[in-house]
UniProtKB/TrEMBL annotation:
It comes from Streptomyces lienomycini. The lineage of its organism: Bacteria, Bacillati, Actinomycetota, Actinomycetes, Kitasatosporales. Residues 34-43 have a biased composition (Pro residues). Residues 79-279 form the NodB homology domain. SUPFAM superfamilies: Glycoside hydrolase/deacetylase. Pfam families: Polysacc_deac_1 (PF01522). This is Polysaccharide deacetylase family protein.
């Protein structure tokens, strides 16, 4: 549970920093103002941008970044967009993986590297257990960041696309078990961000996870890549949906999202042509904090 403790401390520092001076990085290589000098010397995770807790101390929910192409001083800063990839694997899918089903997508990761696209991977703990070398490789690449998509990919609400449900008293341990799996796989510094399986959450779930210090990360653009076979249709849906500050949800799972790599190859050059700059979720959250 060392990881979680570290995350909690990092978040506490960050909330303090956010209240005082804005929290985290606003763009690559440029740090937001540090917390007040009286704050303890901070290890690097403390610079991780997070949102302050929601009303009543609930887990905050992030859906998109600032809808602007300017930084807070009004200078041109480009239009930011974050591609996110869910590395889904449900706790009981081990036998299917053993039988040869591919829940990973190394070609997609290779394409992101080749195109120099920063990205955030929301990884289930079960996926990290199945593909520890890939998890470690993604985690060590500064172009990427790994965030938490639960251990089991069971839903945190009762009715969520037919997913099995994790009971309220198991929510925290399921989330923490994913961080433990990342640690075992050798992933250093996973982000304190959590994506609910299926994107399903309610107030009870937000309350239950509050003590972990995570920021819940949703999205505003559904790529529709899950079980899609028409790459052009998915590409169009992404290009139609993206606005400045958007968070796009896609998948990093060959068997359930076979056209995603092709979609990325089409979407990336077109969005760049339109003036978009790809960033990780952390940078988008940092930008959201500085634009307040
Ligand atoms: Zn998922």
């Amino acid at each position: 549970m060392i990881t979680l403790r570290r995350l909690r401390r990092a978040t506490a520092l960050c909330v303090l920093g956010a209240a005082l001076a804005g929290c985290g990085t606003t763009e690559a290589g440029r740090q937001a103002p540090r917390p007040a000098p009286s704050a303890p010397a901070a290890p690097s995770p403390s610079r991780t941008p997070t949102l302050a807790p929601g009303p009543g101390g609930l887990t905050p929910v992030f859906e998109h970044g600032p809808r602007t192409d300017r930084d807070k001083a009004g200078a041109p800063d480009g239009k930011l967009v974050a591609l996110t990839f869910d590395a889904d694997m449900t706790a009981d899918q081990g036998p299917r993986a053993a039988a040869g089903e591919h829940f990973d997508n190394p070609r997609l990761i290779a394409t992101l590297r080749k195109l120099k696209v920063p990205a955030t991977v929301f990884m289930t703990g079960r996926w990290a257990e199945e593909y520890p070398d890939e998890a470690r490789s993604i985690g060590r690449d500064p172009r990427f960041e790994i965030a938490n998509h639960s251990y089991s990919h069971y839903a945190y609400t009762d009715d969520c696309y037919g997913l099995p449900t994790v009971s309220e008293d198991r929510m925290r341990s399921d989330l923490e078990r994913a961080y433990t799996a990342f640690e075992k796989a050798g992933v250093a510094n996973p982000m304190p961000y959590f994506r609910f399986p299926g994107g399903c959450y309610d107030k009870a779930a937000l309350k239950e996870l509050a003590a972990t210090g995570v920021t819940a990360v949703q999205w505003d653009v559904v790529s529709g890549d899950a079980f899609a076979t028409d790459a052009d249709a998915v590409t169009r849906q992404v290009l139609d949906g993206v606005r400045p500050g958007s968070v796009v949800v896609m998948h990093c799972t060959r068997s359930a999202a076979p056209v995603t790599e092709e979609v990325v190859r089409a979407v990336v050059p077109e969005l760049r042509r339109q003036g978009y700059r790809f960033v990780k979720v952390s940078e988008l959250i940092g930008a959201a904090n500085t634009h307040r």
